[in-house]
Amino acid sequence: MNIATIGLDISKFAFHLHAVDDEGRVVCRQRLRRGEIIAFFSSLSSCLVGIEACASAHHWAREIQQLGHDVRLMPPAYVKPYVRRGAKNDATDAAAICEAVARPNMRFVPIKSVENQGFLMLHRARGLLVRQRAMTSCAIRAHFAEFGVIVGQGRQRVDGLVQMLDDDQLSLPTTARMALAALVNQMKEVDRQIEAIERASIPGVGPVTATALAATVPDPTMFRSGREFAAWLGLTPRQNSTGGKDRLGRITKHGDSYLRHLLVIGARNVFRFPKARSRVGGGWIEALLERRRPMVVAIAVANKLARIVWAMMTLGSIIGRHPLREAADAANLRCEGK
After folding, report:
1. Do 230 and 318 have their domain in common?
2. Last residue of a domain, one of 201, 227, 258
3. Residue 71 above 80 pLDDT?
4. Is 107 contained in some domain?
5. In this structure, are 247 and 315 located in the same domain?
6. CATH code at 44?
7. 3-state secondary structure the chain
8. Which of 35-39, 142-146, 239-243 is least confident?
9. Which end of the chain has fewer CB atoms within 10 angstroms, the N or the C?
10. What's the mean pLDDT in 176-184?
């Protein structure tokens, strides 16, 4: 078979492929099982293979790439416009992938290495443990409230309840004490696991965001500017402009939601503390706070932080060691096209 381009729709067990030749004629439509993928691509000469960037996509991209093929991953949202309306199934998805991967203006997702995926797995596990810790803390507060012990939100207040339980300051039924002790032990164990992950995933630079960015964006030069990087993260406003009138709405929320979440949290800490605020641009942030709601300011600061991070990565510096002001100046210069 003279195959030039293949669209591969992957899943857990059944894979569909759509192959065309140099002139765009369909030469193969096939359904393969998981164990048949490597043998099939081993029998082909080098060709272009398109895959949606979804679960297990990076694994299959690495495996097929080792066989000499040019493998490219695409965001599913970019493939969706090429799906034929009224015929949504795995076969038509493969055909849409095949068509989309050959488009000259298509944006592709870098294939992650095994090490980068390992780093991101640490972050996903940490996020799950943090949510479990929050749920356990809320449960402890709620159970104490059943016995008239009311405290406000916050981890420190929950620690105070734990101290009261350990010191036997409250007269509680044995069954209630057993239930609370089980929850307290679970919360302490989750704390220990979170600390272990943070020691493993943060090699001395401190912020969790650094390793998440390094693992998710192995090649920052794929973005032409800091603004384009911020737009990829979904931190730029939607545009609905016509007739020469610019209308800007809410942020797009495209891209990696986890990275966006980390940057917004970091931005909120920046404008809360004067020392951190002065390093990013205290006057600018204070002026924004006078005119806008705090969450809007946090998004604006997160946008600026994204540009600073991009400048650090493209300059070849390590996040957290390069002077922040120099990185900010570099980001602003590149965004202005200077």
Report:
1. yes
2. 201
3. yes
4. no
5. yes
6. 3.30.420.40
7. CCCCEEEEECCCCEEEEEEECCCCCEEEEEEEEHHHHHHHHHCCCCCEEEEECCCCHHHHHHHHHCCCCEEEEECHHHHHHHCCCCCCCHHHHHHHHHHHHCCCCCCCECCCCHHHHHHHHHHHHHHHHHHHHHHHHHHHHHHHHCCCCCCCCCHHHHHHHHHHHHCCCCCCCHHHHHHHHHHHHHHHHHHHHHHHHHHHHCCCCCCHHHHHHHHHCCCHHHCCCHHHHHHHCCCCEEECCECCECCEEEECCCCCHHHHHHHHHHHHHHHHCHHHHHHHCHHHHHHHHHHCCHHHHHHHHHHHHHHHHHHHHHCCCCCCCCCHHHHHHHHHHHHCCC
8. 239-243
9. C
10. 92
Task: Tell me, yes or no, whether 185 and 73 share the same domain.
Answer: no
Could you tell me if 222 and 331 lie in one domain? Answer: yes
Distance, CA of 146 to CA of 183 (rounded, Å): 15
Quick one: 269 and 322 in the same domain?
A: yes
**pLDDT bracket for residue 202 (50, 70, 90):** very low
Considering the domain architecture, whether residues 296 and 232 belong to the same structural domain is answered as yes
Beta-strand relationship, 26-33 and 237-239: unpaired
In a domain, 86, yes or no: yes
Q: Give yes or no for residue 16 having a pLDDT over 70.
A: yes
Domain endpoint, select from 135, 169, 201? 201
Confidence of residue 201 (pLDDT cuts 50, 70, 90): very low
Query: What's the pLDDT score for residue 296?
Result: 87
The chain-wide mean pLDDT, for the chain, equals 81
Same domain, 300 and 317: yes
Range of the domain at 137: 114-201
What the block records as the tokens of 241 is: 């402009």
Residue-wise pLDDT for 226-265, tens only, equals: 888 888 888 888 877 666 676 777 888 877 788 888 888 8
pTM for the predicted model, two decimal places = 0.62
Domain total for the chain? 3
Q: Are residues 49 and 167 located together in one domain of the fold?
A: no
What does the pLDDT average to over 130-148? 92
